[in-house]
Amino acid sequence: MRILLVEDDELIGELLVKSLTSQHYTVDFAKDGEEGWNFAELYTYDLILLDLILPKLDGISFCRQLRASGNQTPVLLLTSQDTSITKVAGLDAGADDYVAKPFDFQELLARIRALLRRGGSALPPLLEWNNLRLDPSTCEVACDGKLLHLTPKEYGLLELFLRNSHRIFSCSALIDQLWSFEEPPTEDTVRSHIKGLRQKLKAAGVVEDPIDTVYGIGYRLKPVQSGREEELNLEKVADAIANPVENEVRQVWKDVVEKIEARVAVIEQASHKLLQNKVSEEILSKAKVEAHKLAGSLGMFGSDEGSQIAQEIESLLDNGKKLKASGRKHLGQVVEALHQELENLKSGYKTEPSVVDAKADDRPLVLVIDKDQELVRESRSQSSEAIAPGQLTQARVMIVDDDPQILTALQTLLSAWGIKVYTLAHSQGFLEAMALAEPELLILKMEMPSTSGIELCQIARQEPQWAGLPILFLTNRHDTLTRQQIFIAGADDYISKPIVEPELIGRILNRLEHNRWLQNLAEIDTLTLVANRRKSTQELNHYLQWCHTHQQTMSFAVVELDGLKQINYNYGHEVGDRILSQLGELLRQMFHSQDVVGRWGGTEFILGMAGITKGEGVRRLGELLKTFRQIEFITTSNQSFHATFSAAVVEYPQDGDTLEALYQAADIVLNQAKTSGRDRVLSS
């Protein structure tokens, strides 16, 4: 398999090249978008790993250019801008998936394998089960050489099961995989398709039914070899030696540590010059670039805390000479923290890992709560408890179990599926641990000393924050009374020991998928795919707090589509919805990933741009309006017309120091734009 890596940070690039080469991939490495594009034109690749922010040609433009040329090579975006707007922009441009920096190598490798399995290579492999054969290159299914005639949905179901032989799919997961957003079927419809597929396979002479029903969960591919399922061997998993990638990371660290030190030195120089009021724009610009690169690279070497510190430095340097004295002093303190984190990281890499160290693989994040402060300090040197704000690319699961062997085994197993695992070996400090980890799913052992899993479940359900959190139990008991206790306490499901790996993974993934689907419904406006009022209000208030703390400005804008009521009357609501959807898409594409974009209802959209003056806000919205005017909309009767919007821009704290005050100020300006003839952008 041949992979093109386009990454301007040579530290991350070198680390990825070594790691991927150790996994038997052939890797071409380009250090800017233009060089990467030349590679893509010359050679055929199975996958492209593409950084979002690149010199000469950025990742979004690269993606659009690639797709416009007809090249359908799978693209995996690497981004340090972990926001929904960035992700949507990347996917809309044609990327197939994304990974946020700093990323876990196991997750990255898993996502690469997943994309390659989707058929990105020129000659997809045959998929076989007993005497059944599916050829993805021709989309043909045969039994003993005789072709079967399947409907598109039956073919899709069979291919999905054959490609994911160890996964259990719920009906909702099958709908997500095989049906579009516009045509979601009921679960009964899914079952009917599976029934039809089974009947056709049986009639064709397939040896036995390849689709196994896992009652209460969903469906999976039946193992070819009959017999008792292999149970999760806890001792075997716990004693596994660390992945070879860890050794590659350690070797690369030796090669790049001096470069990292040089980057920190550049940042320290800029900070000192700022304090002396003698800094040049060139030094500031260089320091910002180095901070951005450190934010991506430090996490690759196990320092999530260092990545977060570098991100904060990059944010502070964005303001440059505008930083006030207090801000410059704070920058100096943060830079000192970065220097100390680098020293800690260097100390950690001086000791070669032993076999015991390898067993305690820290790829999953481990949360340690213990009265023994020395133990806590020791544990903190091996793992990072930091969670990047809003980072949802990786599912977070917390496990409470007093058996360290179980914890180690589950950490290793779940991390291989791209899940970040937080563990707690006792019930003490349970709520504090929950607050730190912010899990998307909680796994509890039922019987534990001091406080049982049942009691912990009840405690969690009494907290508003965790009232809707999916909770699974691990238990040795199988009786009816135990099941009743589990569900009365508020749990969603339970898993009986001994743990069967496919069942455990299936239940966890199904719960996470369902929970994220609900979360997406609760946060995204389904017509325009921007944040809804509740979500965008939360983000705006967060931005206002940040601006207050760092003494920064923020532009707030209200955008209103002109004449929607008349458009609906003349051409129908479907056309009106299409215009709203198009405006939402433009807002997502043309505004930066760190900007807040939301729809507050009807024709009204809002924008929050931290660190931006209202003059710059007017300019950016003017460009948006110019682009929007040029879009031609076609009605069902083949009539064409153009649409416009009106917008008002105000500034924090000049026009208001709360969201409500800013909105009221913007509303006054918006009315002025309307009375002046609409189709314009005004500021206070």
From TrEMBL:
CDD domains: GGDEF, HPT, REC, trans_reg_C
Residues annotated with 4-aspartylphosphate modification: 51
DNA-binding region: 124-223
Residues where Phosphohistidine is found: 292
OmpR/PhoB-type domain mapped to chain residues: 124-223
Span of domain GGDEF: 552-684
Pfam families in UniProt: GGDEF, Hpt, Response_reg, Trans_reg_C
Transmembrane parts of this sequence: none
Response regulatory domain: residues covered: 2-116, 396-512
Record flagged with keyword Cell cycle: no
Name this protein carries in UniProt: Response regulator receiver modulated diguanylate cyclase
Native source organism of the sequence: Trichormus variabilis (strain ATCC 29413 / PCC 7937) (Anabaena variabilis)
